[in-house]
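Form 12-C: Joint structure prediction
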Amino acid sequence: MRKTFLTRSPSVLIFLSLLALFTLTITLASQGYGAGLVSTSFVKTLGKTLCLCLAALAMDLVWGYAGILSLGHMAFFALGGYMIGMWLMYARTEEIVVASLANGDLPATAQEIGQGIVTQIFGVVGASDLPLIWGAAHSLPLQLALVVALPGLLALVFGWLAFRSRVTGVYLSILTQAMTLALALYLFQNDSGLRGNNGLSGLQNLPYVTASQDVVTLWFFWASAAALGLTYLMLAWIVAGKFGSVIRAIRDDEARVRFLGYSVESYKLFLFTLTAILSAIAGALYYPQAGIINPAELAPIASIYLAVWVAIGGRGRLYGAVIGAAFVSLLSSWFTGGRAPSIPLGFGTLNWVDWWQVLLGLSFVAVTLFAPKGIGGLFDRLAHVRAPDRKGAPLGPDDGSLQEREATE
Amino acid sequence: MRLVLACLLTLICALPLRAETAADILTANAELVTKASRQTIGPVIDALAASGDPAAALVLEAWADKRLGLRKSDGGFVLLTPDADGYALRDLAGADAGRAAKSEITELKPNAGVRGLIATALVQFTLSDPDPARRRAALESIAKDPKPEALAPLRASIALETDPALFAQKQRLERLLTLRFDPSSAERIKAINSFGADLGLDLRGALNPLLATTRIAVAGDPPADSNIARPLKTGRDLTDTEAYDLLVAAKLAPARLTLEAQRTALVANLSGGAVGGIALADLNTQTARDRAYTALETAGAVPQAATDDEATAALAAHRFYDIYTEADPAVTTAATAALKSIGQKVAAMQAADLALDAMSLASIYFLAAIGLAITFGVMGVINMAHGEFITMGAYTGYVVQLYVPDYTASILIALPLAFAVTFAAGVTMERLVIRHLYKRPLETLLATFGISIALQQILKNVFGTQARPLTSPAWLDGALSLNDVVQVSYIRIAIFVLALLFLTFFLWLMKRTRLGLEVRAVTQNPTMAASMGINPDRINMLTFGLGSGIAGIAGVAIGLFAKVTSELGTDYIVQSFMTVVVGGVGNIWGALAGATMIGGFQKVIEFLNPSNTLAAQTYMILFIILFIQIRPRGIIALRGRAAGD
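Section 2 - Result
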């Protein structure tokens, strides 16, 4: 069974070996364990990119395979980041507070430590009690469970509400976008309990770990690579089976699948929740590397960028999503980082920091118009897979009807 | 109170002192004036004030300013202007009276109490000043800082008032002062009742201090003469901590031990690694610290502190009351009743104000969404760049104002120009991009989003990130104020009118013109429409251009009250989509209903939770998500074939 799965999807083996090779190369060239050829900050960028690729995989499954254009998956991504960030910040602050209280005249009581932590974390928003949602922040296992549970639950409830009332297509996109906006606005409040627009910071410092950032960065890099590889394997297995056929059928014609007796809503709900959880895991790996998270990360635009990556990489193929996310996000950080050379024109200079977004937007339009398959289409061309070249006007009013040229031939 | 009484009494007693001129009065009372004290000088000042001599005001002012002096040679009063080596003198009528050296003059230096009496007397002069502007200024200064002393002069000046507006103002102020400061309770109650449910802020400002309360804690019954507002129950009206703090403040109970104080005491009594027989290392729980402190108390090393039991007993043994600072219960009852009836009227007015606010917000959403209702609703094309079209409209207004300095003219030019600019942009976009994607709505969303980020960045590169001003003409400044509660700014009224105009225009266009007929035909069945000789391509292009053009006009309108930045449109895009989705796609009435609902709902939430507009938006979006559950196709859903899929 396993053999047939791998032979049916040869891209899995190629992808996994490339990922392993890449991880090994970076490790050997890193400052932490290797020759020191690549800087730690670059390893961090690569690790973050791997997490974005993971989120893009989830987006590809829900959009490319099932046709649900969710503009809310980056919200789940950020929520996962918030959940892990709460533990990181709490534990780190606890470490500092205990250390500072140990110098006092009396040994500290539990209340004093608790009060010290609250003052440290919530002083900026003027709160003096630990908000309810931080109830589990002292425990890593509980908070890790929340990384999965909270976004999963949110996606489940939202998806259930949306799918049962048959909200589809662009309506669903707008509704998910509204959900993201609502969540972002909620988190922007100071009394939301998550430090308002200050967000959570200092996440790159692992509590109780004395290893240097060079090493810790590599740990996260490996974890991100492992998560990406495992997810890829799992998703490839899912889409290669019967489940994959059903969700592709839902994408192509939802009504027919429903008439065939499948519970379309259950499939969609499962998929929506699963991908939300995957995004949350990606976020939980991403933000400790980024070091800071704030509600701006939930802005609707972030989720739309996720869709852009998947579209440029190529929808409906897993490697397309990974390529798109890696390519566009690395290119984007290269351009916006000011490292791209400005182009002098006759009337002024083209400064890429300012004009990169314009290029991205227009190339995105171009991809949508002229290359709906994205970068993945190049691989089709290499493998000599051709789409039917249908020409002439359709003979009937419906999509996919016989076309003039086909009828005469 | 006593002071006012004294003033009135002295006013009567002073009558025999009345003399012709200010100088006569001063000379007749020279003894009193030179040794003026607050208790004795009253009759003299009142006589001056009542003399009717125009010089009296001058004299009083000079006296209060320490510019009145006594010439030693003849004992006459003179006005002084100090200079380098003495004084320039004027007599009391203001005529020049030569010079004098410092030694020849005794300067009068009234103390603060006397100066206060003089200032009160002067109020009457300003209140009866021939210049109405000065009279109005005096009234305003009294209204701003009401004092009991102002009552008598104010009453005296009412009869002399000739200006009808000022007369009414004086009467109102007199009653406001009466209800606060009159010695007779009956007068005060009469004044309170004379207002009825008046909405003026000044009335509420005068009534509220009458109902000011203080909290007291007493062991038995409350003092007999106190005017009790209400008894307080611990746990319901005030927390145990607050109640105990009251007891401590009234010295009815010893202060409780704070954790900080306990800690300090423990540290201070640390000896040999232990406190009160408990080892230092064991003091890491609160119970251990309490035991150590009790041990110290027993040893007498620290002062006794109230324990929890003692605190509870003390709370049980005392009763707590809110008492009015105003002593007369009849006055407080009348004031409470008046405030209650005012409160009801204010609530009604606030509801009206809220409705107006909601309507103006709804018209903004309607303006922003109407273009979208055309492109999304009628054509089924989702245009994520709609927000950028709104921004382009606003920037068009800004650019026009750079060249046309007259604001009225510039707005009149900007409106059609913004329409033209965004119409052109919309048509270009439709021709180049959207036309190819009519069968792939999700991809239209993405492609237009690509255009949106490109446009937004281009606008940012051209106009910069800082907000640009789009100034409204002066006649749109200010607000239409119906009373102290209900106010609508003219700009909001203008936007409301603009929204109505567009509604009418759109209805006329769709129902009464050839173009509207063709648009509806193409919307319902493009193939059939094409068979009837309508060119669907052209119609789609025009419809899209129209929707975009209206977005541009909405941009000018929004820019008038919002900051014009490249992100202006993004703030409205989600709300606009919501408006269309909630209202029902494909129907202008739907957009109107959606805008009204969203605007109204948002204002109501903001009213319930005014400090937090972010929360209002969050709840509104949640509400919309739930609303879609009940009516998935919006408030006004199309039925039959027109509904499509």
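Section 3 - Comments
The CA atoms of residues 129 and 420 of chain B lie 61 Å apart. The radius of gyration of chain B is 38 Å.
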